[in-house]
Fold these 4 entries.
Entry 1:
Amino acid sequence: MAHVLVVDDDPDVSALVDYRLRAAGHDVMIEPDGEAGLAAAIARVPDVIVLDWMMPRRNGLEVCLELRSDRTYDATKIIMLTAKTQLHDIERAFAAGANDYVLKPFSPRELAARVESLLK
Amino acid sequence: MTDVYGVITFAVAVAAFCVAAATAVFVLVLRITRRHFAKERASQEERLQPALMSIIDGEGATPASTKDQRVLLEMAVRAAHHTRGADRAVLSEWLLASGIIEIAHALMASRSPVRRARGIELYLPLAEINDAPLKSMLSDRDPRVRVLACESLGRAAALPAIADILDATTSARIPASVAAMAITRMVPRRADLLLNYEITDAPHTTQLVIELVGTLNLIDGRAAMEKCLSDPLPEIRVAALRTLGRLGHPASTSALENFAPLSPEEAVALAEARNGVLGALQ
């Protein structure tokens, strides 16, 4: 069982991800914005973070960069879950240290499979 | 006389105070009522969350009341907006079995624009099966409903609706900015989806199409853009130059070399286009 932090300002998306990951046996925590997501990651280092890009307070890319600048989170896998479809956005996300990139609308089953794959 | 003025002033002050107090009370009651309904709705949705998940798991759900059924329908519609693949398919199937088409059609035929807008929202997850009802809403009598229909077609990535959106832009039923956003959201991969549209009669639509070819980097639209360089309208020529610069294809070099600018704006756009092509070559 892994500890997964889901950071997304859309409660519908969070609920879908939460449901699928819990069904896969993971311990899930949900936060509604970048600032709260960072605080939660500091309080307990997650194994995987599912991170939205466009969020209030701090966006997902900033959160990703901040986490990757701290060696504590070297083992934490980050999946960007976003509606940003442009190639240069995908490149920016990977350059910032994301391990995977999932486009919205998304398949919650596929996302759960990607989480499993990153945990292996 | 002074007394009369004093009485009138006092009466006006009291009346103003009463109006202000009544407005304040009204706003307060409105806020409390809205908060109450929002809270009630949130708790209802929380209660129905397992039912929604059971639908996604393909087990279906039978809500206890009509009100629950309505809320669950809306939750399923929202969930379908966010999902794709097997989860989306199972949600669409449940929505169809729950009579969503009939409900949405009834709402879209309503006299109230708010209800027609709600009908569009409900129908959205089914747009990929049949986008005709949404396309027909592009001709709605209310401009806000038309804009929502256009945005919804964009969200549904209904590529075959591009021609209808451009038609609506030509006849000024949809603002060009809204059409541009909707089409960008659809992410068309081929320029012919835009260029198949007959654009000669509507310069603002032609300009929109040219800009979209550049924004979406539809390289197969290059030849059509080069043809637009000989358009009689300066705004079309400038838009085509900018798009050619964005596409930055080396094959555009000769078309740009042969282009003679007729205004300072065209000269600037030409320089930008040449830079774009040169940048791509380097």
Entry 2:
Amino acid sequence: MGHDASYEPQRVADGWELTTGVKRWTPVLLTGAFAVVWTIVTLVLVAIGLRQGGFVLLAFAAAFAVADILVWVAFVKAYRVGKEWGDAVLVLSKWPVRLGETTHGWFHRTALGDNSMADHVTARLILRESATYRVGTDTKTATEDVATVPLEVIPQEREGRPGVAFEFTIPGEGPPTIELQWNLVEWLMIFNLSEAGAPDVVSTLPVRVAPEVAR
Amino acid sequence: MIEIDLDDATVALGETVGGRVVWDPSEKAPDGVKVELAFATEGRGSVDRAVVAGAEREFHGDPTMVPPWFEFELAVPDDAPVSYDGNLIRVVWRVEARLDVAWARDPKTHVEVRVLPKGA
């Protein structure tokens, strides 16, 4: 549902670790496959238009070609993100997090070939609603961020790896994570990273919040 | 006429919703009564709905001996969604009651319940 990792983190010595892992390449493969298919369709349209000399068909082909360029630009950006940025790793002191409880966290994602954190990192915690519904045979999802909490990050190494540390508290009045077939209410950690010479990247990782108030 | 009287309209996950269904004894006696605790979503998304607990009773014999009430205790599961009132999504909990009346329209009613996280 729109985040980098599943809801099943790995237990580590001092908390719980979520990682994007091999999923870093998934958008690259999907975008590349889509770009290839789109190019084939565009070339077929151009070939038919040239053979028949139809202006309307060539106009369609031109519109497809413009969209094709945009798809390839998206592919190149996804490829550069995959090639130049490493996996995102989020470590939280608690999992699931309880309402009203302060949780400590650490985040790591470095540009490859430069084992330091990005030049600039911002972090925020958001509460997002995702409502999925059917329109005819299509399935659509409406999303809205209903709360945003900016987080202060502090550079901190962990097991020799550079990263940033932070802490947050889910409000005591909630809500907790609500995950149903069509409706989802979830807390997400969003990290924006920028590094000279690499495309900006956003890491989105879920925080499962239990329906329990900490005492 | 049928009514639901709840002991408490606000409960936490893992607790029980207790109360009684009361109906007018001057009207035709029912053959049975059924109570359900359910949640449903409202808003932009398709509806998620589930009945999480229920209780029912059938009445046999002399209808004049049937008491015009039915007491119930319905457990709210630990892993159920809590009540929520957001921008795109609402999660609403209800206790719904229905009388089974032979050869007549079955009277029914419902009341809303607020379900909170544990420890709230």
Entry 3:
Amino acid sequence: MAQSDNLTMSPPRVAALAGIKATLPLLLGVIPFGLIYGVSAAQVGLSMGETGGLSVVVFAGASQLAMLQLFADEAAVPVLIATGLVINLRLAMYSASIAPHLQHLPVLKRLGLAYLLTDQAYALAIHRYTEQPTDHRAAFFLGAAVPFWLTWQTCSLLGFRLGTSVPAHWHLDFAIPLTFIALLVPTLKSRSSVLTALVSGSVALGATVLPYNLGLIVAAVVGIAAGLLLEQWRSSFHAPA
Amino acid sequence: MLSSSTFWLVAVLVGVGSFALRASFIYLLGSLEVSETTTRALRLVPAGVLAALIVPTLLFLPQTGDLSLWHPRLVAGLAAILVAWYTKNVLLTLITGMGVLWALQALGWT
């Protein structure tokens, strides 16, 4: 905690460069995601404009991939929208966590940064703001988030170009559930998250009889309720009332 | 596949909704307190939604939609889960899953 050499706010350029530097290793992780999204979008039958448009408008990988899978399943429109949004609920949690660090900024700037908020931008920014409280926060955020945005858009379109030339017997549609596996497994850090996944997965199997792919939402809600109950039960067990 | 106008309706609504989620507290300056239970529930959302997306695609046959406990996609998916668990690496997970699926199909198992 000995940061006495940095009592004055660093200039925006320095903070922006620090943001870019911090985000570079994470770009390696987002490149395959973007490509897979683009390839899958092409295989599902989106046009190039729709593929790129969804990336610009939604700018959230897991949500976009889930929507692709439901496009392919011809799910009902309300279920499509609900699923796309439910996956992004965590962004509200990041928003709450990062809000106190950005409240000195004018409203438009705050809204601009909010559009760029992702798992990665949040993780980098909250770490930096805690370590370097005097930093130029908006510049760091932009430095971290803009390269990420550009990479996501570029890879979406590159993936689309690849996807239109890949034959169906390569079974690249299987990359969507594989991507979900790569996203899910690292989140299984607590017993309650493991229970949530197990219950949700089991309910989803039985709930495929429900119309409009509603089973997905039902399964997620039941799974999360099970995980919450476990946490509630454990905390009441450990902490004296 | 959806019609183009329906696609854009869905895209714009999810886009606006996602932006609202991102901007919610940044805009309101944390004047709303998130309860402990809400935070816990939000933390469990990815596990709940992703598992519900994955499990049926691994256990139902892609051709017929019948439940099957032994087919190439399930084996490839389980291999990918193992690799994801031990490496936490997205690229390796994808390569393993696709690689095992292609290998099994090259061996004539469909």
Entry 4:
Amino acid sequence: MLFNSVQFLVFFFPIVTTLYFVLPQQSRWAMLLVASSYFYMAFVPKYILILVFLIAVDYAAGLLIEGAQGRRRSLYLYLSLVANVATLAVFKYYNFVNENLETLFHGLGLGYHVKNLSWLLPIGLSFHTFQSMSYTIEVYRGKQKAERHLGIYALYVMYYPQLVAGPIERPQNLLHQFHEKKSFDYARVVDGLQLMLWGLFKKCFVADRLGIFVDEIYNNPHAHDGWSFPYVAATYLFAYQIYCDFSGYSDIARGASRVMGIELMENFRYPFSAKSISEFWQRWHISLSTWFKDYLYMPLAYGSITDGVVKPWKLQWYVVVVFLVSGFWHGAGWNYGIWGALHGLFIVCSTVFRRLNARINGTLKTVITFHLVGFTWVLFRANSMADALAIYANIFGGKLDAARSWHELVHNEQLHVGVFVIAVLLVLERIYKSEKLKGSNPLLQKLQFNYAQLYYAALLVLLFMGAPLEERAFIYFQF
Amino acid sequence: MSDLENRVQSVFRRVFSHDSLVLKREMTALDIDGWDSLNHIQLIVALEKEFKVKFKPTDVIGLKNVGEMVDLVRQALAL
């Protein structure tokens, strides 16, 4: 079920939220679990069995880890990690590895006859396996008590707002909230609904509009061979499309959850204002970047300290490796892996050239960072590595052709719409960030309005008038 | 600012080559230029050296701000 569907907005969300407040505390978890299962099964029903299997394994692992000592603790943790990673490997990476082996064998002149699997990737698999691993690792580290209540643990994995595309929660933040009694708080409900509206605006008004132009160019990478403008324009637009698509999803998830009084972690913090790639990752998909930092990078890096000394090249190597893995987390394709590795390399370069870096003006740093990230978006959006290379060839090798580009800029309606919605986004985000929304002025007070009410009313109007009618899936659903 | 906080501040200044840096408990990596994953490890190593302590690996993971870092040093010294 999509957040931007009538089914969710008109039926699922209001019914589930009403039931949540009407039911007594002791049965809320059961209702949320049934609702979350229904939400998940709206995609491919039988894949719920994967969740049942992983929930059973990780629930048992949590209890066993807590009760064990020494090597047994590690053994139970490894079993949990293997179960999650193996499930992810079979469903997400089997075909990728198989195809690469086939290419390799053929290259060596050898026969290879292993068939690909024809399974669909279970929705949200990369998200909920990571959240489950976060649980068993935190129990192992002694920072989280094992959850005794099987139903509440299942809800931790399956909680519908964040089940299929995050934020990837930590047990310390989420589990205790399911045990607490949340009462109806008008101000909080309004706040949650406003966050949902802001997310829907970003997804439907901005991202989906931009997607029309971006898809046309990226799905036909050779349509304008030899001319750079369309590819450059589509890549700029894609930067805002993916930001609004994914941060929009996170806002709807956080808003829907906040209405019930359950707070989910912040996933985006104005990423395009970052002054370095490293800062970009402190602002973009925060729940994933902190996951990789806490559970992969830090153990590697901290483990490499010997006698109070750590070799910089080791840390740099780990950064590239972790970003490479993070790239493949997004998708089983070389374009994703290289996309991740490039981010790692950029971070390493910025530390190697630290002195030069310190001399660059702050605004210029933001501009450079935005363009470095933009450069890598080509790999992220292209349908294959071959497509990405074709688009790079056009961007950097194609002619600028000023007259033709100007003509396109003046006459392409989709491009006008794209530039317009980005401009609207930037203005509205600026107002959203400012303190102004909290206040009012005497004239508005007389009319019993404040800035926030006007602001959200404007968002609603824009959403109804400006969003494309079709329901477009969220980009991150494919991961 | 306590003596301990002053010493933590001077370690931060050294690691981030920022002589006028003034620490506040609520500061995060986003508030300090150059506080990335690479420098974070250098910071941990420098703090361990300055205070002659050894942090537990699980304690240095997931530190959210300067305040938590100061508390970690204080805890390590108390042991």
